[in-house]
Amino acid sequence: MKSYDVLIVGGGVFGMTSAVELAKRKYKIGLINPDSIPHHLAASTDVNKAVRMEYGSDKEYFRMAEICIDRWKEWNDFFGEKLYHEVGFLMLCKGNMEDGKHRYEKQSYENLLASGYVTDRLTTKELKKRFPAVNANVYQDAFFNPKGGYVESGLVITKLAEYARSLGVEIHERQTAESIEVENERLKAVKTKEGITFHCGHALIAAGANTPYLLPELQPYIKTTGHPLFWLKPENSKYFSPPYLSFFAADISNSGWYGFPFVPKYGIVKIGKHSNGLLMHPDKDDRQIKDEEVVDMRSFLKESFPELASAPLVFTRRCLYTDTLDGHFWIDQHPNIKGLSVSTGGSGHGMKMAPILGEMTADRIEGKIHQFSQRYRWRHLGVETSQTEEARYLENRKV
Ligand SMILES: Cc1cc2nc3c(=O)[nH]c(=O)nc-3n(C[C@H](O)[C@H](O)[C@H](O)COP(=O)(O)OP(=O)(O)OC[C@H]3O[C@@H](n4cnc5c(N)ncnc54)[C@H](O)[C@@H]3O)c2cc1C
Questions:
Q1: How far is the CA of 328 from the centre of ligand 1 (A)?
Q2: Tens digits of per-residue pLDDT, 91-133?
Q3: Residue 277's closest CA among 332, 225, 203?
Q4: Inter-residue contact 353 to 65 (CB < 8 Å)
Q5: Partner residues linked to 250 by β-bridges
């Protein structure tokens, strides 16, 4: 009979960072996940994910990202692998940042300056010279922040899983949580589709987009939304590679478009859209990218990165956000079931916070208050709730 102090359901970034942190605190940890880790459909599994401090007027995420960037550098040393690439962040604006339509961009810029960061505000002429692949006629205003970039998220999960195993975490692949056994409002065990019962003193549900399906009481507060990703093969990668291109946001708060520099390992440039996405069921709905989404992407490139506009599209993917109605993570104990906690709600921006998610979750499991706990507690959200992540282009601020 398998028994743990804490059983973690889900080996994405929320689950794996919690496994490492709890094992460091000397708990006996088990972790279950379908198929293998990193799971090919997990949101955390990708070639790159952005790391940015630019959160508009949101000082808490700014501070969290600031801490995480320093820790990503420590992880590069600790794991002896370049997980985090500090290629910088290029913020592009159609129109002047002070024009009232660019609150996110303007306040992000002001936050950086107020915190003493050297950030280059670029004229059209400078933009043309430094980032020649960008159509500078379209973007009248821009700034470049050298502190930021991307992480190789799939590789991060692989490295964390190796480290977790070295700390004694028992990782059970090909195990899918199906039901949670509760007696007298106390969690007893987790049963899997594969017929195993895992007994534990505490269970942590970190199953990403599947979390609200394992805990239906979360469905009013957390949605699953699918978002398109496009991999394009540039004919000439020179001007799509650092220092000529960094992670970028293209008038993102009014368009949703963002992208990454050329990835030599795969020979591609990845483009994504941080917007409403499509409401969907993680297991039942078709994740295929629609033709009209490709047309939309091509017209964006035609206007913004003309050289990439007709580049071969070598791969597409619809990746799922675990989308809380307010856009904040969900890290807390269950209000009615003792011995049960949740760590989820990445809402399209959780990966960069990996270096801090584990301790936030472990503290909540131990009933402690972390400096960044209050906003991610179990909370009531309703139709009146607006999504607050300012980079995201959302109609009426609703998911
Ligand atoms: C298109 C897209 C772009 C993004 N871009 C960025 C970005 O640039 N920067 C950033 O910081 N963040 C970004 N994010 C957000 C980030 O990827 C997520 O917040 C984060 O990866 C979520 O991690 P997770 O552990 O909650 O979920 P996941 O990574 O999905 O992991 C959940 C795990 O649970 C497992 N699981 C599911 N059901 C069960 C079950 N029943 N039993 C056991 N295990 C189960 C799954 O197999 C999976 O391994 C993006 C997300 C998407 C979708």
A1: 14
A2: 999 999 999 999 999 999 999 999 999 999 999 999 999 999 9
A3: 225
A4: yes
A5: 92
CA 352, chain centre distance (Å) = 6
How high is the pLDDT of residue 397?
Answer: 83
- Residues in the chain, how many? 399
SS3 label, residue 397: helix
If one residue of 35, 40, 44, 158 were mutated to test the ligand 1 pocket, choosing by the most ligand atoms within 8 A of its CB, it would be 44
Q: Which two tokens stand for residue 257?
A: 């478009």
| CA atoms in the 13 A half-sphere facing the CB of 357 | 27
Q: Hunting for tokens 């307010």 — which residue is that?
A: 326
Does pTM top 0.90 for this prediction? yes
Q: How far apart are CA 121 and CA 50, in angstroms?
A: 20
CB of 18 sitting under 6 A from ligand 1: no
Paired tokens of 152: 């190789």
Residue of 8, 36, 39 with the most ligand 1 atoms within 8 Å of its CB, for mutation: 39
The three-class DSSP label of residue 3 is strand
Q: What is the C-alpha separation between 390 and 395, in angstroms, rounded?
A: 12
The distance of Cα 15 from the centroid of its chain, to the nearest Å, equals 13
Question: CA-CA distance, 319 to 227, in Å (whole number)?
Answer: 5
pLDDT, position 396: 81
Domains of the chain, each with CATH number or no CATH: 2-44+154-221+325-397 (3.50.50.60), 88-147+223-321 (3.30.9.10)
Strand partners, 91: 143, 249
CA angle 8, 10, 14 (to 5 degrees): 85
Q: How far is the CA of 50 from the centre of ligand 1 (A)?
A: 14
Q: Three-state DSSP class for 36?
A: coil
